[in-house]
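Hey, I was hoping to borrow your eyes for a little while. No rush at all, and the record is pasted right below:
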Amino acid sequence: MCYAVQKSAMWETALSEGNSIHLSLVYERKASSHPWLDWEWSVRGMMPVADADINSGPRLLERSDQAVRWLGEPSRLDLHRTDLDAYVYNLTSPQPSVYTVAHELDDPVADGLIWKTHLVTMSSYEAEEYMSGDDALIGKLVMQTDVREWLEAFVALHYKDSTFKKRRRDKLDTEEYKFGQETLLELRRRMLASGKPEGELH
C-alpha cells in the first residue's frame, strides 16, 4: 500500500483552511541488511487528519513479513512569511519536497513505534538544522500536486520581492538541487555573484 501524499477530499478540506494543516506521518520499520543494525526506519508518507482526530495517538497500520507501518500522532505544518525564500527555492527545484524530523522516544508506543514527530516543514533549511545530530530521523517526501499548489498560492500572495511564477510541469529546472546541498546564505551569494536578483531563482 502506498502512503505518499495523495490528492483526496480530506486533503482538499485540510488545505483550504488557511496557512496550516494537521497531518500524521507514516513510519516504516524493515529488517536491516547492515550487520550492526536490527532495523531500518523511514518516513513513507503523510496523511491528512480530520478535526475530530487531532488529539488521537499513534497507531499500528499494518504488519507483514517485509515491514511494519505506523501512523504517527497528529502534527501541524505551518507556513511562515519568514520562510518565503526557502519555499521559493523548494518550489523551483526539480523535485519539490516536504521535510520531516522525528525524535526517538525513550519507550516504544503503539506496539513498537520508537519515533515522535517533531517537525514537518516545506523549508529544507529548517530541516538542515537537525542533520548534524544522530538522534533524529530525517525524512524527505515528494510534494504532490495539491500540497504544492497550496504552497504556491501562499508564496504568490506574500512574495513581493519579485514576480513569482507558479511551477509548470513542462518547464522544470535543469539544474539538480539536492537536500542539504546548499544553505540559503550560499544561494544568495551565488545569485549576487551571477548578477541575478535575489528573488530570481531560475
